Sequence to fold (315 residues):
Amino acid sequence: MKIVVLMGGNSSEREVSLNSGRAVAEGLREAGHEVEALDIASVAEVTRLPQLAQLKDADVVFPALHGGQGEDGHLQAVLEVLGIPFALSGHTASALAMDKGAAKRIMRSAGIPTPDWLQVTVPLNRRLKVEHIQDRAGDELGFPVVIKLNGSGSSVGVEIVHDPTEFAEAFTRIAELGTKEKLDVLIEKFIPGRELTATIFLGRRLPLLEIRPRAGFYDFANKYTDGASEYLVPAPVHSPVYEQISADALRVFELLGCRGVARADFRLDGDHYSCLEINTIPGMTHNSLVPKAAAAVGISFSALVDDLCRSAVEN
Fold:
């Protein structure tokens, strides 16, 4: 097949996207495909020549854009309008998953455990009383809390605040990382315990994976620095909790209408677990979690990306 891998973009995760895109392209070439890796500066580029001609000439497109309009449904909507087949989730699932607050509301309505949260979404020209937000966070969630951008990934724009005196500065730092149009920040009750991730691949539950950072939490540095974290797959979690987490990951995948592959992130405290979010374009670097889970059941990286592209063409 002729396959175009889209990578790059203009989000804060551009470098991660480039690494994922190069790895995907190499894996697809190993599987025998004719592959072109296309570094785009923005999603708008896909509608311009010669990029548009390249995409229309392809049998399938593999989006490897992390964050921003490459993952929030904009790119997927453009490809759908243009009638270009592409791997991974469509625009609706992508938009819902990237909007962490929306995904959490769907989880909560379906009875899937997710940490309590507050969402702050206001135009940037509106004056905001951070002290009021801090008071609400303390009253409704209690400290510690996690402050994060509502529409970002790779732990970009995430801070754990243990003490109320740290809240205002942390909130301001996170807010400054957001878009120029509006402030959209999620404040979430911090869940202690173990970090787990569940991969759903073509409707199949892959083994749970546990992440053990050697220092701090699983932030951007611990995700993409060799040796910074230890990975256990399958995760040493006893039954029936293991099965419940896997089943709920699949439920989130289906509730949001995801396709191809997605990765749901969980925290496990004793026997109590919470789903934090689901990622519709999970990382595909050599440090990424989805390839590790696939390898645990004998699925090579090239077979992983090959199956995703073939599934997109067939469906």
The longest helix spans residues 14-30. The chain has a mean pLDDT of 92. The chain is about 35% helix and 25% strand. The two ends are 15 Å apart (CA to CA).
